[in-house]
What does this fold into?
Amino acid sequence: MNTPKPPIPAGYWRDANDNLVPESKVKPIDKARSHLVEGILDQAKKVSADLLSFKLVTMQLIQAFVDDSLSQYEVKHGGKKGNITLVSFDGKYKVTRRVQDRVIFDERLIAAKALIDECLKDWSKGSNANIKALVNNAFAVDSEGAVSVARVMGLKKVDIADEKWLRAMKAIMDSMQVASSKQYINFYEREDATGEYTLISLDVAAL
It folds into this structure.
């Protein structure tokens, strides 16, 4: 929790190091720059809030439509997951909702790693050199101490009919947990000339 800073006394400016500087000592160009940046950021925060509100309302509208569509078939939809594409009648506009899960591994990944290490010890040195390098890469941790889901899951592509290896692969699958889900909404317009859909970007940096 951030402790609010004390108010700035009249006639002073606060610099980036929290020092109080007499207004008379602040150069006009520094004042002008500060006013410019503050004004832009005020507008940016308003736009950001508007975009967030738009996203939330859009997600609610899409979900309400999906629920209404499914209700025509007397289907009850449990939850809000699922990738969906909605297209206007004339095909000119398209809205997509994509749900991405953030997957993590629980403590059972340790068992999987131990089983794999036992496999590498049991097999002859000549036959496991490449697999050992693959395993070491798969279980390498990043700066936050997390392993890559994609690299670990890549081990399942290795076709090894070894009972201990298969148990390790099962431990990997059992250890996977969905930590959170995030919804992404994208908007597209079809170009008349090419028939291709073009993304309508709401990312200021991408415009």
